[in-house]
User: Which sequence fits this backbone?
């Protein structure tokens, strides 16, 4: 397999290390964020479609599909800051973080890769990056501990294990925001977390200059499942 990279466009890293355009995303969006590939080779990627770090006015985000034959089309829209995505092991459901509503949104995946039957999978989460485990729950990274604890204090973050419907099974709090979560390791039970200090968009330049990013690890009770 090849490494796929999102940014201004969708790139593919070749065996010699060079980066080439994987697909022409046309005028769907100016930049791309999260990406997930299903078991049939379909690539889903999303865009918030506004300059978040520049303080631009929010607009509706989208999910695009790149099929194995290279065709590209939008398969979902009207998303309030689309973020992390997972696909269930049976390739039947895509779950996405909708950060500005605090929800996880689920879609059915049709045979042609289209998305249908949009519904709320869980809410009150302030979600960012997510991953799924073998019992069907989702680990959710967040920069907003308050969304889970209702305690006002130093800005921080958490990772939460939640099942469909919103029941919180486990919560681990940290002194910094959690932007991504992934299960891995020999037994697929090591929870890798991408973390950094975050005190809001008003202090983004200070946060970038401080270079506080870390990869944290924690042991999980259930191994990984689904994609990525």
Assistant:
């Amino acid at each position: 397999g090849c490494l796929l990279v999102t940014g201004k466009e969708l790139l593919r890293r070749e065996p010699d290390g060079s980066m080439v355009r994987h697909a022409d995303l046309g005028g769907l969006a100016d930049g791309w964020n999260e990406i997930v590939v299903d078991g049939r080779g379909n690539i889903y990627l999303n865009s918030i479609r506004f300059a978040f770090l520049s303080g631009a006015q929010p607009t509706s985000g989208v999910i695009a599909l790149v099929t194995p034959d290279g065709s590209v089309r939008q398969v979902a829209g009207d998303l309030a800051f689309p973020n992390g995505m997972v696909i269930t092991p049976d390739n039947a459901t895509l779950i996405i973080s909708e950060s500005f509503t605090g929800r996880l949104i689920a879609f059915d995946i049709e045979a042609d890769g289209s998305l249908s039957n949009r519904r709320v999978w869980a809410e009150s989460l302030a979600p960012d990056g997510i991953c799924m485990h073998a019992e069907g729950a989702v680990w959710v990274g967040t920069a907003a501990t308050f969304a889970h604890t209702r305690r006002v204090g130093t800005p921080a973050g958490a990772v939460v294990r939640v099942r469909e419907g919103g029941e919180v099974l486990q919560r681990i709090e940290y002194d910094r925001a959690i932007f991504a979560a992934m299960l891995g390791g020999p037994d697929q039970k090591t929870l890798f977390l991408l973390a950094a200090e975050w005190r809001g968009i008003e202090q983004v330049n200070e946060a970038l200059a401080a270079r506080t990013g870390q990869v944290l690890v924690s042991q999980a009770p259930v191994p990984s499942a689904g994609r990525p």
Summary: The helical segments are 146-149, 204-210.
